[in-house]
Amino acid sequence: MFTNLISKSISFICLLSFGIGLLSCDEQKRVIVPFVPAGNRVVLLEEFTGKGCTNCPKGSREIENLLTLFPNNLVAVSLHAGFFADPAVFQIGQYDLRTPEGETLYAYIGAPLGYPSGVIDRTPVGGEMQLSANQWSSAISAAIQEEPAVDLSIERTYDVASRLLTVTVNGIGKANVTGDIRVSVMITESGIIDAQDDLEA
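^ that's the sequence the OP posted. Answer follows.
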């Protein structure tokens, strides 16, 4: 009987402890602080793609995510260049989206190890120029935090009648810069709809 009483007491204490433990639990809300760039730097992401690249639409979807994440600090351009963009090899869709400039840039930067692949500010990251899609976000975050050496402003006018585009780039130096300094001006085109292989579709 004494043993039975001890057993009931222990059961009651355990039940009471469990109940107190449940009442004292307070669910902690996890707050995810959004990334806010420290400066006003704008980073360029150049993605190499091609209509025959079945993984490249995944890269395009990642670019859309990144443009949402960094709306004021990212410019993204997709360049159709290299093997996967060759319509003679991949007879898909209507258009040859390659350009001589894109092919030159592809040759200059070097072929990627795999696709999708992109270059951040034409600057190596960890010794690599071409980065895979899962590396873009962290590389962009790091690049945005760097203080720009030159503040650039772009003025452009377009005459519809003559189809003359005039672009003026102004720069104000913010730091001492040495070495070969170049400015590239790129005209992009969007809204072209054509077929592309998609591994995830």
